[in-house]
Design goal:
The complex is a heterotrimer. Chain B has ten helices and twelve strands. By secondary structure, chain B is an alpha/beta fold. Chain C is mainly alpha-helical. In chain C, strands 1-2 form a two-stranded antiparallel ribbon. In chain C, strand 1 and strand 2 form a beta hairpin. Classes of the chains: A mainly alpha, B alpha/beta, C mainly alpha.
C-alpha cells in the first residue's frame, strides 16, 4: 500500500517536473515568438534603407538590425578563425601526443578556462586593451579585434575538448591499421584519425560558433557599442545582436524600438537553433557531455 | 546656344535641385557641408542623456557621408570623462560639468550645447502628482517607503537610481536632495533610457531622469509646485538644471571639431530641441 | 621524422598557449588587484558595504547577492531536474520522455540574453503582481529564471549518470520484483550519487558565473539583500556595471577582487568535480 503510494507520487512528481520545465521554456520562448512575430520583415533588418543599397554597402542602415547582424557575423567569424586552429591543434596534441600526466594537468587548466564566468574573460580583454593602450599604441582601445580575441579564449576549451574526445573515442582498430601498414604517426593522424573524427570536431566548431554568437558578457566589456554602423576595421567599435537585445530590454525609447528588440531576439534564437540543429545532425552524440558543462 | 547660356541652364538646374532638397529636408543641408569629403571615425561615449541627440546627429552625418563613422556608446558621464581623458574615445559626453580636478588632469575642453534638467518621475498610473522637496528627499533616502505616506495608494515605493558614473545622479543628488545618501536598497539602472522604461513599467516606481527624456510613458512629479518641463527649466523656475557637455582632450581637431561645430549649428541645435532639450543658441 | 617532431612541437605550443591564457587571466587579475592587498583594504572589502561617496568600496553585498541568487536557483532547479532526468532515463515510457530529452538538449543552445529578455517582460511583472511589493526585479525572479537556465546542465548530467548504472544491478532489482520507482530510489540514485553531486556543482558554477540574468532581472541594488523579494547585485553584474566607470581608481581595482573570488570559486568547483569524476571512473571499471 505504502509502496504503491510512493510509486504513484514519485512517478507523478517526475511527470510534473517534465511539465514544469517544458511549460517554462515554451512559455518564455513562446512569449518572445508571439510578441515578436509581427516585427519579422525586411524592415526589421534594413529600416528605411532599401535592402539592396544596404547589402551593397551603398547606404548605411539606421533603425534596423542589419549593422548588428553584420557585426555579430564578423565577430563570430574572427573569433572562430582565431580559436579554431589553436583549439584543434591543442586537441590533437592532448589526444595523440600528451603523456597522461600532461593530459591531466593541462586538462585541469582547460576545465578551469571553460568554467570561469565569461564576464571575467571580458574583464581580462578590457584590461589587456587598456594595457596596450597605455604601453603600446594610442590607437588600441576596446574594439572588434579585442572582442574576437576574448571570445576565442572563451571557446578555446570547448574546441580542445571536442577534438580530443573525438580522437580518443575512435575505435582501436582504426588506430592500429595504418601503422601496421607502415604509416608514420603523423600520416596516421592526418589521413586516418582526423577524417574519422571529423564529424565530432566539426560539430564542436559549430557549437562554438553558437556560443560566440550568443555571448553578451564578454563583448559588453570589450568594445560593443549602441550605434556604430557596419564595422569598418578591426580596431573599430561595432554593434552586435545580443548586446542590442540587452540594450533594448533596458532602454527602449518607443514601441517601434521595443519591437525591433523582439525581432532581434527571434533572429538570434533562430540562428542559435539553426547552429544547434546542424551540430546535432553532424555529431553522433559525441560532444554531448561536453557542452552543457559550463558557461 | 552660347556657352554662357549653357552654364546658366546648368546653374538653374542645380539651384532648383538644391531648393527641392532643401524643401525635402527642412533642416539646413548647409550645416552638413563641412563634412563632405571627410573620412574617419569619431568615437563618442559617456552621458546617456545625450544619446538620442548623438544618434540623430550621427545618422544625418553618416547618411550623407558614407566614409564617416560615428560610434556612440553610453556608460555615463564619469565614463565619458575618463575615456576621453585616457584617449579611448574622441568625445566624452557628460551631463554634469567636469570637476576642476578632471579638467586639469585631462586638459579637457568643454562644449555645452544644450541645457537640460533632472526631473523626478513616477508611473502615469500613480495618483501622486506632486511632492515637496522634503518628501522627495525622504523617499530617496528610504525614510518614506509607502506611497500612502505621500497621499497615494497603499503600496511600497520602488526607488530607482543610477550607477555611480551617472552625471544625472550627481546633479540630482546635489541639487534635488541636497547630497543626502540615496538608499542602497534602490534598484540601479544604467542609463536615462533605462530609467524611463523601468519607471514606465513599474506602477509603484519612482526615479529621476533627464527632462529631455520625459515623454507620455512616465509622469513628471512637481516638486514644491514646479513641474519639470522644458519651459520651467528654460525659465529657471525648475532648479534642478544642468548643461549637457561634450568634452574633448585638448582642442578638438579634424572630424571631431567638425562634429562639435555641427552640434552648435542650426541643424544641431534643432536636433537638440527636437529631442527635448533647451538649445543654447 | 623531423617534420613529425616539428608538428608535435607546434601542436604542443598550441596546447601550451591555451594553458598560458588560463594562467594569464588569473595573473592579470592578481597583478591589477594587488595594490588592494598592499593597501590593507583587501580584507576590509569583504566585510564592508558599497558606499562610493564615502570612499568605501566593500563587496560584501555582492558576495551575498551572488550566493543567494545562485543557491536559490539551484534549490529551485534540483528537484525539477531530478524529476526530468528520472523521467527521461528510468520512469518514462512512450515518445514524450524522448521529446523532453530533445527539448533539454535544445535548451543548451538558447541564448542567455533571450531568456533575460523574456524574463523582463514576462516574469518580472508576474512576480511584481504576485508579491504585491517591490519592483519584481528581485532575487526571486532572477533565481527562477536562472533555475531554468541551469536545468539542462543538471538534467543531462543526471540522466547520463543514471544511464551508466550497470545493467546487471538493474536486472537484479527487476528479478527481485522491483517497480521502476523502487529501482530508481534504491538502485539508480544510490549508484549515481557522484554524478548527481558533480551535476549540482557544475550547475552551481554556471549559476554563479552567469552575468546577464542577474544584470537584467535582479535589480542591481547595492544593499545587503534582506529578503528574496528585494533587489540584489551579483559579483558578475557588479563587474559589468562598474567596469565602464573607471580605470585607475580603487573602485576599479575592487573589480579584480571580485574576479579573483569568482576565479577561485571556479577552480575549487572544477577540482572537486574532477576528483569525484576520477573516483567515479575507478569505481565503474
Amino acid at each position: 500500500m505504502v509502496t504503491r503510494l510512493i510509486d504513484r507520487s514519485v512517478t507523478a512528481f517526475a511527470w510534473l517536473s517534465g511539465l514544469v520545465l517544458t511549460a517554462s521554456v515554451v512559455g518564455l520562448m513562446g512569449y518572445v515568438l508571439i510578441k515578436g512575430m509581427g516585427s519579422l520583415s525586411p524592415r526589421l533588418f534594413f529600416g528605411n534603407t532599401a535592402p539592396l543599397d544596404a547589402l551593397l554597402l551603398r547606404r548605411q542602415v539606421f533603425d534596423g538590425i542589419f549593422p548588428a547582424t553584420v557585426g555579430t557575423l564578423t565577430l563570430v567569424g574572427l573569433a572562430i578563425f582565431i580559436a579554431m586552429p589553436i583549439g584543434i591543434a591543442a586537441g590533437i596534441y592532448m589526444a595523440e601526443f600528451a603523456t597522461p600526466r600532461i593530459q591531466s594537468v593541462f586538462g585541469l587548466f582547460f576545465d578551469i578556462l571553460a568554467g570561469i564566468p565569461s564576464i571575467l574573460v571580458g574583464l581580462f580583454g578590457f584590461s589587456v586593451a587598456l594595457f596596450f593602450h597605455h604601453r603600446v599604441s594610442d590607437r588600441i582601445a576596446p574594439c572588434l579585434l579585442i572582442s574576437a580575441l576574448s571570445l576565442a579564449f572563451l571557446v578555446l576549451p570547448y574546441l580542445i575538448r571536442t577534438t580530443q574526445t573525438a580522437l580518443e573515442n575512435l575505435p582501436r582498430h582504426v588506430r592500429v591499421t595504418a601503422p601496421a601498414l607502415g604509416a608514420s604517426r603523423l600520416q596516421t593522424i592526418i589521413y586516418v584519425l582526423l577524417p574519422q573524427a571529423l564529424s565530432g570536431i566539426v560539430s564542436g566548431v559549430i557549437l562554438s560558433v553558437g556560443r560566440c554568437a550568443e555571448d553578451t558578457a564578454v563583448i559588453m566589456l570589450t568594445g560593443v557599442v549602441a550605434t556604430a554602423g557596419l564595422p569598418s576595421s578591426l580596431l573599430s567599435s561595432y554593434e552586435a545582436l545580443p548586446f542590442f537585445i540587452y540594450t533594448i530590454s533596458a532602454q527602449y525609447a518607443d514601441q517601434a524600438e521595443l519591437m525591433r528588440g523582439y525581432g532581434a531576439a527571434i533572429v538570434l534564437l533562430a540562428v542559435c537553433a539553426l547552429l544547434f540543429t546542424l551540430a546535432t545532425l553532424i555529431r553522433h552524440r559525441l560532444a554531448d557531455h561536453l557542452f552543457y558543462g559550463t558557461r | 546656344m552660347s556657352r554662357t547660356e549653357g552654364r546658366l541652364h546648368w546653374l538653374m538646374a542645380i539651384s532648383t535641385l538644391v531648393l527641392l532638397l532643401a524643401g525635402f529636408c527642412p533642416a539646413m543641408a548647409g550645416d552638413l557641408d563641412p563634412f563632405s569629403g571627410m573620412t574617419g571615425t569619431v568615437k563618442i561615449s559617456g552621458g546617456t542623456a545625450h544619446i538620442p541627440v548623438m544618434k540623430e546627429a550621427a545618422k544625418r552625418i553618416m547618411q550623407n557621408n558614407p566614409d564617416i563613422r560615428i560610434t556612440v556608446a553610453g556608460g555615463g558621464s564619469g565614463v565619458g570623462i575618463k575615456q576621453v581623458g585616457e584617449g579611448l574615445v574622441d568625445i566624452g559626453n557628460s551631463g554634469r560639468k567636469p570637476t576642476d580636478e578632471e579638467i586639469a588632469k585631462y586638459d579637457l575642453k568643454m562644449f555645452k550645447w544644450a541645457i537640460d534638467g533632472v526631473g523626478v518621475v513616477a508611473n502615469p498610473e500613480n495618483r501622486v502628482k506632486a511632492l515637496s522637496k522634503n518628501q522627495v528627499k525622504a523617499i530617496f533616502a528610504g525614510r518614506i517607503d509607502n506611497w500612502k505616506a505621500v497621499g497615494g495608494m497603499d503600496k511600497a515605493i520602488n526607488v530607482y537610481t543610477r550607477d555611480e558614473a551617472s552625471g544625472t545622479r550627481e546633479v540630482f543628488w546635489k541639487k534635488a536632495i541636497d547630497k543626502e545618501d540615496i538608499t542602497p536598497g534602490a534598484n540601479v539602472v544604467v542609463s536615462n533610457g533605462a530609467m524611463k522604461s523601468a519607471v514606465a513599467n513599474d506602477p509603484y516606481g519612482i526615479g529621476y531622469v533627464s527632462v529631455g527624456h520625459i515623454d507620455a510613458s512616465v509622469m513628471p512629479l512637481a516638486i514644491d509646485g514646479v513641474t519639470p518641463t522644458l519651459e520651467t527649466v528654460k525659465s529657471g523656475q525648475y532648479p534642478v538644471a544642468r548643461g549637457l557637455f561634450s568634452n574633448t582632450r585638448g582642442e578638438p581637431t579634424g572630424l571631431t571639431q567638425t562634429f562639435i561645430a555641427f552640434l552648435f549649428s542650426e541643424t544641431g541645435q534643432k536636433i537638440a530641441a527636437e529631442k527635448g532639450f533647451v538649445a543654447v543658441k | 621524422m623531423r617534420t613529425e617532431r616539428l608538428v608535435q612541437r607546434l601542436l604542443g605550443l598550441a596546447a601550451g598557449c591555451s594553458v598560458a591564457v588560463t594562467l594569464l587571466i588569473f595573473g592579470f587579475m592578481v597583478i591589477l588587484g594587488l595594490p588592494l592587498a598592499t593597501g590593507g583594504t583587501f580584507f576590509r572589502m569583504f566585510t564592508s558595504a558599497w558606499l562610493p561617496h564615502q570612499g568605501v568600496y566593500g563587496i560584501a553585498p555582492m558576495v551575498a547577492g551572488t550566493l543567494s541568487i545562485a543557491s536559490l536557483a539551484v534549490v529551485f532547479s534540483v528537484p525539477v531536474s531530478l524529476g526530468c532526468a528520472a523521467l527521461i532515463s528510468v520512469l518514462g515510457s512512450g515518445p514524450l520522455p524522448a521529446l523532453l530529452h530533445r527539448l533539454v538538449r535544445f535548451m543548451t543552445g538558447i541564448p542567455t540574453v533571450v531568456y533575460g529578455f523574456a524574463g523582463i517582460f514576462l516574469l518580472v511583472p508576474l512576480v511584481r503582481e504576485w508579491a504585491g511589493r517591490g519592483s519584481g526585479m528581485c532575487i526571486l525572479s532572477a533565481a527562477l529564471l536562472l533555475g531554468v537556465l541551469i536545468a539542462p546542465t543538471m538534467i543531462l548530467f543526471f540522466s547520463d549518470s543514471f544511464a551508466s548504472v550497470p545493467r546487471t544491478y538493474l536486472e537484479a532489482a527487476e528479478a527481485l520484483g522491483a517497480t521502476p520507482v523502487q529501482k530508481l530510489l534504491h538502485v539508480v540514485i544510490p549508484c549515481s550519487w557522484r554524478g548527481l553531486t558533480s551535476g549540482v556543482v557544475l550547475a552551481l558554477g554556471r549559476a554563479v558565473g552567469d552575468t546577464l540574468i542577474a544584470l537584467m532581472i535582479a535589480g542591481n541594488a547595492t544593499a545587503m539583500p534582506g529578503s528574496v523579494l528585494e533587489p540584489a547585485r551579483t559579483l558578475t553584474a557588479h563587474i559589468a556595471l562598474v567596469v565602464a566607470a573607471d580605470f585607475d581608481s580603487l573602485e576599479f581595482r575592487t573589480l579584480f577582487a571580485c574576479g579573483i573570488i569568482l576565479y577561485l570559486c571556479t577552480t575549487v568547483m572544477v577540482i572537486f568535480t574532477r576528483r569525484i569524476g576520477a573516483a567515479w571512473e575507478q569505481q565503474r571499471w
